[in-house]
Amino acid sequence: MDYFNAFWVGGLICALVQILLDKTKLLPGRVMVLLVCLGTLLSAVGLYQPFTDYAGAGASVPLLGFGHVLWKGMKKAIDQDGFLGLFTGGFTACAVGVSAALIFSYLASLIFHPQMKE
Prior knowledge:
Layout: H1 2-23, H2 28-44, H3 48-55, H4 57-60, H5 63-81, H6 85-112
Helix pairs in contact: 2-5, 5-6
């Protein structure tokens, strides 16, 4: 049942974002920022953690989940370090994911030799 919940919740999030992109004039970059901010806001009010517990990867993999990770890292760092944690918490919480994305992107570029479009 966990796989099913992850599949339908992740699919629903993706479908709603696609509808938002198709029906509005919002650019993809702005929609991505909106999703990260929405994930952070939902985490701040305590709604995203139960959602993640229910949907697993279906809720934690999309950009909403990235906002949730940033919020959790900031909250933990603020509790430990005070005001300075506001600036360091998000970076430490997402460092592994961002580093992995950079490393795998670089490796993919070595394998597939991307070129600029003309």
